[in-house]
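Title: Request for sanity check on Aminopeptidase N prediction

Description:
We are preparing a figure and want to confirm that the structure record we downloaded matches what your pipeline produces today. Could someone re-run it with the sequence below and paste the raw structure tokens into this thread? We only need the token string, no images.
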Amino acid sequence: MNIATPVTIYRKDYVAPGFWVDTVEMGFDLHPQRTHVATRITMRRNHDSAEKDLVLFGEDIKLLQLRMNGVNLKKSAYSLNKERLVISNAPDQVTLEIETAIAADKNTTMSGLYVSNGNFFTQCEAEGFRKITYFPDRPDVMASYTVMLRGDKKLYPVLLSNGNLIEQGDLDDGRHYAKWEDPFKKPSYLFALVAGKLVCQEEKYKLKSGRQVLLQVWVEEGNLDKTQHAMDSLKNSIRWDEERFGLELDLDRFMIVATSDFNMGAMENKGLNIFNTKYVLANSRVATDTDYAGIESVVGHEYFHNWTGNRVTCRDWFQLSLKEGLTVFRDQEFSGDLVGNETGRAVKRIEDVRVLRQLQFPEDAGPMAHPVRPDSFVEINNFYTVTVYEKGSEVVRMYYTLLGHEGFRKGMDLYFQRHDGHAVTCDDFRTAMADANGRDLKQFERWYSQAGTPHVKAHASYDANAKTYTLNLSQSCPKTAGQAKKLPFHIPVAVGLIDAEGNDIPLQLQGESAIATTKILELKEAQQSFVFINIDREVTPSILRNFSAPVILEYDYSDEQLAHLLAHDSDPFCRWEAGQRLAMRRSLNLVSAVQKGEALSLDDLFIQALRKTLNDQHLDPAFRELVLTLPSEVMIAEEMAIADPHSIHTARQFVRTTLAQHLKADLLQAYQDNLTPGKYSPDAQSAGKRALKNCALAYLVEWPDAATYALAHTQYQEAENMTDRIAALSAMLHCSSALDKAHSKTRKQVLAHFYKEFESEALVIDKWFTLQATAPTTDVEQVRALMQHKAFSMSNPNRARSLIFAFCNANPARFHAADGSGYALWSECVIALNKLNPQVAARLSRSMDRWTKYPKANQALMKAALQKVAATKKLSKDVLEVVTKALAA
């Protein structure tokens, strides 16, 4: 087998650009088959650069004309290949005039300029701008832009670009124009253009300074009734950034545009954010509580990028987490603050940690493991990862934990003071945090440069005579690709001690005078001991409060200690974590029992611990739902040296069924207590009650009883919001009894009804596909059948994700079929998507990068599927990088 060797780009090879760009003027004559782009760029030599040639990047575009300082350049004056245009011996001051042509309607990659449902959109991050014109397309080249858009007025009545609208009018032949100016320098990846038939909701908004701005949410006709939540989220984001960080919107208007064809969730283009419809459109009929929360978070995230990403951007793509990790932290804090109470913040924190553990920890343990600031890549699109985003946000949160609220704000203020308008590095951010607080954070740099998830081992000893409690901590980090030896990290470990009555006791470290109920211990060595004094009674340690660092904690808790923490810990994260540890311990034991053919059982301590939590009316319903939600099959697999998806599924379903049997009366009571009659509201309190009610319903249908199945069916029929409707349908499809034939007719009727009811709502039909893709009854042949459904399209990323990705990533017992049929489907879909959209194909490729974690028989079949993809002709470097690293594992 002949596999091409991908070209690797290294961070150490960074060279500053040979030329800086001051201004960019662009004119677009929009036509789907042939858009004409005229660009004028003023440039000046960077005498500090080792790069002497003038280098421009371009892909999949036709060069029509090239002029330098008013003179047409002959082909002998420059070199041109598929990726770049190089002019040697250019003068120090250059004005380039470039004309290019683009076939936007043929662009299925959705990178650069493309057409979706008759409308024009752009996606330029990371390197899409080079599919529009030849340009030094790199994030450290920042310039001011003026853009003229021209197009048919009937076909494209709306013409949008970055910044402020400074002129518009009609042209001959039924065309019109709009001229936009962005007064702030930006890199080319933040350029945006939208043209088409769109309508908008708009509001005037008064900033804290008194200045009024125009806010707009643009959508296709028929979706205007689904924009209010996005608009409210935008206003809340603006207000929060003013109050929390003193950062004001700097443009006269801010626009959000929604499209159903989009590779990402959203894009923060300066003043013109382009969003996947999934993160804009919502009303109670079509959107769930989760959708509402997702819209709030993503709208906040993209708006916050206006400062952390746009005003201060990254020097090179290796520094991607500089903007993404920081902005994820900001959007998490925003969502937590918006809830307005500590319990709500804690629920949000637990949800974020759950995502990190389910997605990022496995990435850290696999062949695509990389530091938060990668050292190399083949295709930058492959590094928009949970490591860069979610782990990156945890790194930022550790600054917050170490420096405190005021200290972190001081660091942010200094960061903007020093670097506004510049392209900088992760080290620049760290230095600002250190300098603003007079702290030595040199060792903290290892969080950026070392891959892998650190393990923190803890053991404790209590000396009753001396009244001291000693906590011994040690750290290690497994080797990852290219990094065998890891140096100690700087790890903040938040600790509390709880007595037999469940009370936090005051803590004082030996040699310190400060007393608190939670102490931040700074673990910086391979091993350290921390001694607490004046401890006059036996205690249980509460370690890693609020998940103070993205590590795996190893502490030999007894079941009784965990039950005690679950019942009493004042830190909601550690309280939830105690329940998860109890559940994981039993899940792993049950998996082993399944594999050995032994009888399965669940102990009373665990059952009663969950019963007590379920019935504790002092606890927020949203928190109780989190405790009642068992570790996922994916997370159980991560705890095993060799993952056995079928045994894991059997064991987990046994736990669910057993809990349903023992807690039936309690679950029914919780269901009744958490009904939310009246008009739907997505507020945190109502959403929490629905979450617990629907969690109870999902357990109840595990008990094979016609009455409980009827309860789910009735909820589906009577639901007045999508949250309750989809939860009822999910319960009917995903319960253990779904494997029986008793209710198959009802399930088919409900699925058919759901499709007919929402056939015109694309985002809801995505849910319909996902529910079926993840059901335990769904095998490969049923997925293939769904791929033939009239509503399925491989070319739409949302639809591909809703069915194929969902089956491969969220239905492990069926995907890992013993005959390898799941792997065959995967390879066919990756190859098909590679031709259409390499970015989406590469994402699907990641479903198999942990192939060495499965039994030998599965490994052989998975390896063959990976080799089949790797040997494909014209394989994109996006996919090639993933499968090459996977096969090398």
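Thanks, this matches our download. The two ends are 17 Å apart (CA to CA).
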